[in-house]
Amino acid sequence: MAANKLIVRTSAGIQDYVSTWRAMQTFTISRNIQTSDELWLTEHPAVFTQGLNGKPEHVLNPGDIPIIPVDRGGQITYHGPGQAVFYTLFDLNRLDMGVTRLVYLLEQSIIDYLQQHNIIAARKSGAPGVYIEDDKIASLGLRIKKNCAYHGLSFNIDMDLEPFSRINPCGLSDIKMTQLRNFLPNCNVSNISQEILTYITRNMNYQTRTFETRPIT
Questions:
Q1: Which of 52, 128, 161, 189 has the most CB atoms around it within 10 Å of its CB?
Q2: DSSP string for the chain
Q3: For residue 25, is pLDDT > 50?
Q4: What is the pTM for the complete model shown?
Q5: Does residue 148 carry a catalytic annotation?
């Protein structure tokens, strides 16, 4: 299977987090060298996810939002409606890259997108993600199994940011979260997700992109 082919699956509406996570695991365990890479684009209902390195002291006051321990790297983060989540089901052997390069290119895709709109964004040493000045707009968390990646990237577009105040996002007690709506007031989650997808496709050197309508879960 050519390394430059990507299948994109977009969910209809907001998808249950646990069902999506289990589907990613199943996909990764069952894939082989002929399986095309996929990118799943979705939104989730309000949920906190705690990574493998998560520490309980970073959960401050979750209230009625569930906390789900998961198998990605990193610590606790929040997902909710209005946040685009890109699940990157990529074969790193076929792409001839390691996880550090993958993280770099995913971050760069967000930086490139924001630059298109004259929004200056950057990385921060020791804290993966994308930042506008000191505020975080995109987060990353990955798991590598069989040298294939799953989990991925979340980008805050037009959402309620209050739940981030109930945690130390990504284990950072001094971090403030932001979202695209603060810079582009009329932003649309679906349209912006498709624009960012173009940058991911280009930066990862996928020359063929196929959209499939079959559900994620």
A1: 128
A2: --TTEEEEEEEEEE--HHHHHHHHHHHHHH--TTSPEEEEEEE--SEEEE-TT--GGGB---TTS-EEE-SSSS-EEEE-TTEEEEEEE-BHHHHT--HHHHHHHHHHHHHHHHHHTT---B--TTS-SEEETTEEEEEEEEEEETTEEEEEEEEE-S---GGGGGB-GGG-TT-EE--GGGTSTT--HHHHHHHHHHHHHHHTT--EEEEE-S---
A3: yes
A4: 0.94
A5: no
